[in-house]
Design brief:
By secondary structure, the protein is of the alpha/beta class. The chain has one domain: TIM Barrel, CATH 3.20.20. The protein is built from eight helices and ten strands. It has helices spanning 13-21, 42-51, 67-77, 90-99, 120-123, 153-162, 178-185, 204-224, and strands at residues 4-7, 26-30, 57-62, 81-84, 104-110, 129-133, 167-169, 189-192, 197-198, 201-202.
């Protein structure tokens, strides 16, 4: 078992290189959001995405909610993957698949309760993967990620078992709890931002601690199997 790791909130080419050197499989590039950490201009997203070598994936985190706007955002930034952070209309998700068939599409599901599982069937025909996060999209100021909060992993584990597509887990992950997250949820991948940063900057020590804890957890599960 190897759990993929996405380092989010990348803010520069230098941070991208640091994350890649540490073994990241994917990098998250946060565009304009109503709240939360890490947004950078689209011009910088495009610069970082262009500098990242394969096979490392670049995820554009977009808060756009229509297929046309998301497609335009993709063309402005040129990522390998688009992460749709709002619960957009499934009809828009279907249209995005037509507009951008060659870009990997990841739908974020904000886990506020068991009803999150009801969204699997709505989106699965149109996306390549899901990402479970701890946002509150219906709050007065929408939270669409980067909260640093852990949601109910029991629900996430049910989601993973019920879903035929890869599922990433986000929300409050750290070196201290990543082993429990992997054992309990068994996600395809992990997504981390705030716990590997100090004063908003990617921290090499925290990053390596997280990566090492995740690797040890995966090795322990493989040995047990």
């Amino acid at each position: 078992m190897r759990t993929r790791i996405k380092i989010c909130c990348i803010a520069s080419v230098e941070e991208a290189r640091m994350a890649i050197a540490a073994g990241a499989d994917a990098l998250g590039l946060v565009a304009r959001m109503p709240s939360g950490p890490g947004p950078i201009p689209d011009t910088l997203i495009a610069e970082v995405a262009a500098a990242v070598p394969p096979p490392v994936a670049t995820f554009l985190l977009t808060s756009e909610t229509t297929a046309d706007a998301i497609s335009a955002h993709i063309h402005a930034t040129r990522p390998t993957t688009v992460q749709v952070v709002s619960h957009i209309s499934p009809a828009e998700s279907a249209r995005l698949a037509v507009l951008e068939p060659h870009v990997r599409r990841v739908q974020v599901i904000h886990v506020e309760g068991p009803e999150a599982l009801d969204l699997i069937d709505a989106y699965k025909p149109h996306v390549h993967a899901f990402l479970l996060d701890s946002g509150r999209p219906n709050a007065a100021v929408a939270e669409l990620g980067g909260t640093g909060r852990q949601h109910d992993w029991a629900i996430s584990a049910r989601f993973v078992k019920a879903c035929p597509l890869p599922v990433f887990l986000a929300g409050g992950l750290s070196a201290a709890n990543v082993a429990d997250a992997i054992r309990q949820v068994r996600p395809f991948g992990l997504d981390v931002c705030s716990s590997v940063r100090t004063d908003g900057r990617l921290d090499a020590g925290k990053l390596h601690a997280f990566m090492n804890a995740a690797r040890r957890a995966c090795e322990g599960i493989t040995t047990a199997q």
